[in-house]
Design brief:
The protein is mainly alpha-helical. It is about 60% helix and about 10% strand. The protein has a 3-stranded parallel beta sheet with strand order 1-2-3, sandwiched between helices. α2 links the parallel β1 and β2. α6 packs across α8, α6 packs across α9 and α7 crosses α8. The longest helix is centred in the middle third of the chain and has 23 residues.
Amino acid sequence: MQLESQVLFADYAASGHEALARLAARRADVLLVGLPLPDMSGVEFVRTAKRAVASCQILLLAAAGAEEVMLAAIEAGAAGCVLEPCDARELVAHALKLRAGGSPLNPLVARRLVERLHARTLAHAAVAALTARESDVVCLLASGLSYSQIGDKLGVSLNTVGSHIKNAYRKLDVHSATAAVMRAVELQTPGKA
């Protein structure tokens, strides 16, 4: 196999902790990680491996049905993912693609990543569409103030507070004060979206 001459398979580990210990000593270019790991989550492994060797590219391999786990691990820093079954020739090709700067993604996982990106983009647009006053009202809700306390603090009527809240709910696509606050906090927390 011609591709194999370009790849050195240096090590194998039976667990995530064992792989991390060896990674620190070997500084691999590409890691092939079969999920699930027996001793830690894929997300925990990816985060720890990327902290140890930031330049290491991580390729995940998992059975069908593990797409959500793979998405979370990609968000943690993995660079690609493929679903089983995947023969040795395909794995070598995927590893070489990663090393060359590519990102092999299973089509189902790629689709879910696109859907998440679209949802986040729409959510950010919703927060951006909030007027300054609507944003103030949501922030005051998050502080635990009641509608009447918000009205007093902003110098507006209870009806005006209600109107701002109704508009914010519509723009954030939520149906309660708790959901509005959670959505706003989620979208304004760095690294969350």
